[in-house]
Design a protein that fits this description.
Length: 316
């Protein structure tokens, strides 16, 4: 199961905004569909199956000692539902699940469901996390209470989620995570990341070295391990000047060309097995320009190009 073998793209809408600090992300899946995501993929030769939208499991009452936390039962319900959907949608050698968010809290479910599928296949799951934020808070350390800030902590097995979030069906090895484009990190996250084993490339490293030399060694590791590669693309990875439709704008993000280069390298690697597009807030967008850009970036990942270049082998 990798991009080399994919013939079908499975679109899965996740209309969740409970983890975000402002409303609007629940409209994200509709905006991606309106921006022509299915046609864009079909034009590249893929069969497209739109599986509709996920619904959360029923709520159960819960309270937490951190009084700042917002909508904890709701996010826990989404996490349980998405772990199941991610596991089921990732079955099959020739199909790629593409999750249409929705805020980034959805990754708590997608990552753990995909990790279970990878474990059953006896292949490691790797994650390329394209985001301004590491989302590495626990329930105890979150100060804003917005739970789109915790999915990576939960998925990598950090403590403090038991009894609140569902027990993860499988956890992600932090050593298999590469974060690219980071530029907004809270002190508690910074301390935790230092000892996590996660590879973090912030925007300063991108400025100093360029994006390709930072991404290429990670792709080489995935290839050498015969791993599955999940790509989590947050709108705020991009500079808000080109992608205003997000509630967590952070200046100094990836440029148009940097973002497309990442996608083109991912396609050439042939390693990607699943994708999620998150944090699109159409209420904050300008005539759909952010939704259209995200669809165009996905098309680059799936093979759209201006000129053909020799494919670089990541197994040599």
């Amino acid at each position: 199961m990798s991009l080399r073998h994919v013939t079908q793209c499975r679109l899965i809408g996740v209309p969740v905004q409970d983890g975000a600090g402002r409303p609007g992300c629940e409209m994200g899946p509709s905006a991606f569909r309106a921006a022509g995501i299915a046609k864009s993929l079909a034009d590249l030769g893929y069969e497209v199956a739109d599986l509709g939208n996920v619904a959360p499991v029923p709520l159960r009452p819960m309270t937490h000692g951190n009084g700042a936390l917002k909508l904890l039962p709701e996010v826990a319900g989404w996490t349980a539902a998405l772990a199941r959907h991610a596991y089921e949608a990732s079955a099959g050698r020739d199909a790629m699940p593409i999750f249409l968010g929705g805020d980034h809290c959805l990754a708590a479910g997608t990552l753990t469901g995909l990790a279970l599928r990878a474990a059953e296949m006896r292949r490691p799951l790797f994650v390329l996390w394209l985001d301004a934020h590491p989302d590495f808070h626990t329930l105890e350390t979150s100060e804003t209470g917005n739970l789109h800030g915790v999915p990576m902590a939960y998925a990598t097995g950090r403590p403090g989620f038991d009894g609140f979030f569902p027990r993860p069906p499988a956890c992600l090895d932090p050593a298999n995570v590469c974060m690219l484009g980071i530029r907004s990190v809270d002190p508690a996250e910074r301390r935790a990341l230092e000892h996590s084993g996660i590879t973090v490339h912030d925007m300063r490293r991108i400025d100093e070295h360029g994006i390709a030399p930072l991404l290429r060694p990670f792709l080489q590791r995935v290839a050498e391990a015969d791993g599955l590669l999940h790509v989590s693309l947050d709108v705020d990875f991009l500079d808000p000047g080109i992608a205003p439709g997000v509630g967590t704008t952070v200046p100094g993000g990836a440029t148009f060309r940097e973002a497309h280069l990442v996608m083109e390298m991912l396609h050439e690697s042939g390693l990607v097995s699943s994708v999620e597009l998150v944090e699109l807030n159409p209420f904050l967008d300008e005539r759909g320009r952010t939704a259209i850009l995200m669809v165009d970036l996905l098309a680059s990942l799936m093979g759209r190009r201006v000129l053909d270049y020799p494919t670089r082998s990541f197994r040599s």
